[in-house]
Amino acid sequence: MALALAWGAPAAAVIIASGDGTGNTSAPPDDPGWRNVVNISETGVYLGNGWVLTANHVGADTMFLDGEVYEPVPDSEERLVTNGPPDTDADLLLFQIVRDPGLPDVPIRTSSPVTFPPWQASEVVMIGRGRSRGATTSGCSSTGWKLVGPNTMRWGTNVVYQKDIPALGTILFNTSFSQSGQTDHEAQVASGDSGGAVFIKNETTSEWELAGIMIATLFCRGDSAIYGDFSYAADLSEYDDQIEAIASVPACNDGVDQDGDGYIDWNGGPQGEPADPGCDDLLDPFETSDALPCDDGIDNDGDGGIDFDPVTYADPGDETTLPAGEGDPGCGDPTWSTESPECQDGIRNDGDGMMDYDAGLFANGSADPAGPDPQCVGKPWRDREAPYSSGSYPCGLGAELALLLPALMWMRRRRA
């Protein structure tokens, strides 16, 4: 049988032998972690605490879930290592996302799967995202199916065939696509379906555990799934200590500015940076907060800028130049109440015919010929286009009361 080992090709799918091959596109009745298997251009698995695990050759990328976008934390990638000697870089990658997807934690399996005797081999649930089963075909003295679109997330089952396989710098286990139907939804990973999940149920606790990450396939034909093909997954029991050491550190207690706003952790950064208001406490896994429109990791007003960015604040642009950085110029700091105050909302709010700090360039995509509102120039975070009248200032004690405050406090202490 002529077989080829392939990885890193465009994402294909988990192909199933049961039925007409179009089933299993929603969570199985005994769900091992369906929603935690996420779309990141190919596939990844959200572990919890803000961390995603995938194949290194897939790489860190934007995560999509239920129509929401979750950006990766810049430079958060951590490649796992296969212990030697010599140590080698494994085809496994962890990276952080900026905000909370609201998914549960996934436990990592700490013991390798069972392969012998065959009738007691570990049964797995495989979840991947990609193409579907097409017309029947043949090859390598066997039969199977062609791969067709559209790309779809699907689950299937199999049993572990071999383990402790050193390949691609990684310790792997594999499954065999068997025509004898070892499991009810016999599955095969098609070429390129990398980063998907392989779950095994712990027989002692009856809890599903993430046992593997799909890495490669040994196939007869790259455009098909043929009985006798093999699927390969990284054995996470070889890497569980590394995953725990990396992914267990909360984002609000690691000395890193995950969301790029210049504010760090619950109690401030190592160089005296101010504390991040998005952190509830030291154990908070995200520096963003849904309660703060300028520190929630979301483009709330749809203008392409996200949250407070000190680079954008320092250089917000004008009617001829777009802002620097990636932030929203409407944010005066991470605690600002809106990304679209009157001076950065693309609307003529005060009836003078002029608009925003930049004539609406950033909010609307083009500058209004009438030009910017003079009250807003250089102040995109200002909450009104009209001049402030006496007594209408948005906040503050007022200069006179501020001067009197020390004397009032002294008098109060004297009376006590």
Instruction: Report the CATH architecture of the largest domain.
Output: Beta Barrel
Order of helices and strands: EEEEEEEEEEEEEEEEEHHHH
Number of helices: 4
Proportion of residues in extended strands: 25-35%
Widest sheet: strand order? 10-11-12-17-15-14
As a percent range, the share of helical residues equals under 10%
**CATH class categorisation of the largest domain:** Mainly Beta
How much is the average pLDDT?
89
CATH topology value of the largest domain: Thrombin, subunit H
Shape type: elongated
**Distance between the ends:** 94 Å
Secondary-structure class: mainly beta
Number of strands: 17
Number of domains: 2
Sheet with most strands: 6 strands, antiparallel, barrel
The low-confidence parts are: 7-12, 394-416
Radius of gyration: 27 Å
Written overview of the protein:
This protein is mainly β and 416 residues long. It has two domains: 4-244, Thrombin, subunit H; 292-416, no CATH class. The chain contains four helices and 17 strands. It has helices at 240-247, 310-314, 361-364, 399-415, and strands at residues 4-6, 14-16, 37-40, 42-48, 51-54, 63-65, 68-70, 78-82, 88-96, 123-139, 142-167, 170-176, 187-189, 197-201, 208-219, 224-226, 230-235. The strands form four sheets. The protein has a six-stranded antiparallel beta barrel. A hairpin with a 1-residue loop joins strand 3 (37-40) and strand 4. The chain is elongated. The model is unreliable at 7-12 and 394-416 (pLDDT under 50).
